[in-house]
Amino acid sequence: MLEQLSVETPEQISINYQKAGIGSRFYAALLDTLILCLILFLGFYVNIGMIQYLSELFGNWLGAIGGILVFAMFWGYYMVFEIVTNGQSPGKYALGLRVIKDGGYPINFSDSAIRNLVRLADFLPSLYGVGLIVMLFSPNWQRLGDLAAGTLVVKTPRKQSLSSDNTLTPDVPEYNVPIEEFQYKDWIQLDLVTDSELSRIREFLSRSSSLVIGRRMDLARTIGGPLVDKMGGYENVRYDIFLKELYKLKTTETAQREAE
Length: 260
What we know:
Elements (H helix, E strand, L loop, with lengths): L3 E5 L5 E6 L2 H25 L1 H11 L2 H24 L5 H6 L1 E5 L7 H9 L1 H5 L5 H9 L6 H6 L1 E5 L39 H13 L5 H18 L8 H21 L1
Antiparallel strand pairs: 1-2, 2-4, 3-4
Helix pairs in contact: 3-5, 9-10, 9-11, 10-11
């Protein structure tokens, strides 16, 4: 089974990922389970007096209520982390894994809710037995929850976070050159850049570190070429640097305008 996965976004940018296999996902799940058990143990220990009081109050119903609470914590643990950290539970973060949509975009609330509700079926009869069997027959190592939600688990660079508009997976790389020293700043015409073009640039920059150099340069030329032509042309353009400078200048301009 091939480890590489190519996803084409709606902007027609092909993104290459490395699939997360059974081994790495197992260790991530094991770590998350240990964390959950620790949380449950500490919760029981700290609230033992409250539990005794509730036992007297609810009697035989306490077991059912406890089961519901354990399920809510089990389900909520994964869902909250996947939404807040953009597809990473603590276990996935430790193993360098991330949950994404099968179109390459971050998962949303409903995606996470579905994949984690179906986790119960994946866990049957125990220790993710059903999920393991399904993954073995899935070309992209998807368990039932992934198939139901349309999600994938991929290996990803560790330094990643949400963008301000929650639309990106990795960080857009910093361009650590002072703006006054930018090579193309006096030629770039920011008013000619549309929102869709800026979104496409941002998508490219966020993924560029995971692309091989040849593919990265080809994509930079594909995205930057029309913009260079629109701005009147420029000889011997380094399209990757051009896109970084354009994005930094545009976002800086937007931030300054909002601050006024």
